[in-house]
Specification:
This protein is an alpha+beta fold and about 210 residues long. Helices cover about 30% and strands about 30% of the residues. It has a five-stranded antiparallel β-sheet. A hairpin with a 7-residue loop joins strand 8 and strand 9. The chain is built from seven helices and eleven strands. The protein folds into two domains: about 100 residues, 4'-phosphopantetheinyl transferase domain (Ribosomal Protein L22, Chain A); about 100 residues, Ribosomal Protein L22, Chain A (Alpha-Beta Complex).
Length: about 210
Amino acid sequence: MPLFATYESPRRAIWQITESSEELFACFAEKEKILPALEKIKTEKRRTEWLAVRLLLKELLGEETVIAYHPNGAPFLPDHPLSVSVSHTNGYAAVLLQENKPAGIDMEYRSDRIQKIRERFLSEAENAAIDPAHTSEHLLICWCAKEALFKLMPEEEIDFREHLHIAPFPYSTTGLLTISESRSPHKRTYLLNYEVSEEFVVVWER
């Protein structure tokens, strides 16, 4: 079982998905509880991601548990008083748990394709702050930050470019960034952690 890493404060974990869905399914003790939902998932990639997320929860909570979903698609744990956020990308899955507040995590596989959509999710000022020596990595941090914040917000019809705002920050492989939202009357501000590995970029709420 390639559990990639686990962390505390906040509780989170990453799984490197190298197994087949059959191999992941074999790791569960209460198979009958997840089989009906699993059988509805048609693609192998989606099945492995779905199972990896639940194995991460098992690792973090010490037991197998159910993930349910709100009408807007946001996950929650009906059997635990914890907020949960999940993300998956090419070959990896991640889970974040928070107490007494919403959870937000996002990860993306490293790729230059992010450069093609930078104008869609970054303002002119945010684009100007991107390090030209590390363009793709810096853009991926910003994208993941806005995705993580999106997962934290209950509001609907959020425009990444118009409603989510990243304060300029120097590129580094690890660090903190400040991000705010103008979609709600509260105009909330958050401090997010980020990390750039050889394979992916991940951003999570502190």
